[in-house]
Amino acid sequence: xxxxxxxxxxxxxxxxxxxxxxxxxxxxxxxxxxxxxxxxxxxxxxxxxxxxxxxxxxxxxxxxxxxxxxxxxxxxxxxxxxxxxxxxxxxxxxxxxxxxxxxxxxxxxxxxxxxxxxxxxxxxxxxxxxxxxxxxxxxxxxxxx
Length: 145
Hints:
Elements: E1 2-5, H1 7-15, H2 20-32, E2 37-41, H3 44-53, H4 58-67, E3 73-75, H5 79-87, H6 93-104, E4 109-111, E5 124-126, H7 128-132, H8 135-144
């Protein structure tokens, strides 16, 4: 299974906002399961750094940004992805970049906290909670525990 993880899943964990434990489970599965091919946009790295730097020192913010690279693949930011995002109908440009990135790798699922901005997606869009209850995902999680 190939999954694409939106930046807001990382931000859930960083800020411990509502639903953060399920987002952490998604990230742990993404990093721990050999059966998952887990991706995020190259845009996620600087966004994560930016949000973390607002509340932490430079060293901590860089270390947290580097943590994204552990066992996750980055979809490179390209002119094709940006052109696709600019042409997209979504209400949020950052989300259309995320969607174009997920589509470029033919992800099976796009995992996000913000489903409403992905209405035009041809990919199945799920919240962390919705993704975690899929039988295939539950089986993968059971193998890691």
